[in-house]
Amino acid sequence: MRGYSDRQPNLFVKLNLEELVPKDHPLRPIKRMADEILVSMSRTLTAAYAGSEKGGRPSVPPERLLKAMVLMSLYTVRSERALCERITFDMLMRWFLDMTPDEPCFDHSVFSVNRERLDRLDITRKFSDKVIEMAFEAGLISEDHFSIDGSLLQSHASLKSLKQIERLKAAAEQNKDKDGDGGSGDTGDTGDTGDTGDTGSVGNPWVDFKGEKRSNQTHRSVTDPEARLYTKSKGVAFLQHTMHVLMENRNGLGVMIMVGKADGYAERKCALKMIDRLKRKFGLTPKTLGADKGYDTEDFLLALQARDITPHVACKSKKEIEPPRVDNDGGWQRWFNQRRATKAEYQVSQQKRKLNEEIFGWSKQYGGLRRALVTGRWKIRQVADMALSTLNLIRMSKLLAA
Predict the structure, then answer these.
(1) Predicted structure pTM score
(2) I need a labelling partner for 170 at 20 to 30 A (CA). Which of 102, 140, 239, 313 fits?
(3) Which domain holds residue 106?
């Protein structure tokens, strides 16, 4: 007998989200680990909000916001608005966030409102550290051998946002004078569009930089002032930040991530900062550190020697380096590093360091870090912390299940 659809909705529906999700669903171990970490962070999360004795409305649970950021990286959701739209009808996401089927989803503006609160107590960084501590306890992380690498992260700002620094200073002085004269105090651009050819149209006006040389010394983005023009190859230089990852060599888990200034020195500066924080936070000093040719400089190798770390850095020179002068400590470090290249442990480090590229590849392809979704380095770092934490949770769930 033919069946027919019943278009009359039921008045009451009994629905248990826990029963809807299969027992072997890959999200289950990730949710279990994330919940365990968030429980251990309860005091930190409580300190981020005013006490109940002061009154006010209850906030969206911060645990829910952090797990929503995990989902955003996990499912490559393009924006916070799109994430909230999907949570409205996606029962799997509601289960992950501990929401009931009929509970209204929070507004996307909650993320913007809480960014400063998360930054004030460095909550996303602490969440990332807790993931690493869990991996340490499970024996998944090497305590001796690490690798470092960096990559470019394109800014959310467009090249059209570049303005001459002198014009920006003049506009700021003009606005300052207006404030002093009791003017409107408008701190925006004074209407001088620079060398734009803008006809006054609203929206996305045309900007003509033809015949004008743009550089970091003469121009700055008004959308993302911390971004810098940079490129690793010949061609157009885009507004960029840099992204650096310190990775352990046993299973390729990213121990730490940092967002820095796009210049030729950022890789080595951020590497030393992360090594120092690794010792300060986890009490670890790497025995070896693998890296590519960009780290083969005398000052960096000397800094590693001062920290009692053996460098396994790819050598820039393909030819044999001649023994330097006796007083050239940096030259001797490069010479020793090249001689070290024939040893088996050096070759293993060079093989393992390439796993860093998998972290960058996943972060850009799936984690939302191909191009920054927000402006401001501190905001980008929050997204980067949660993207790296998400990737580590995925890998840990597979390693612990094996």
Answers:
(1) 0.87
(2) 239
(3) 17-45+59-120
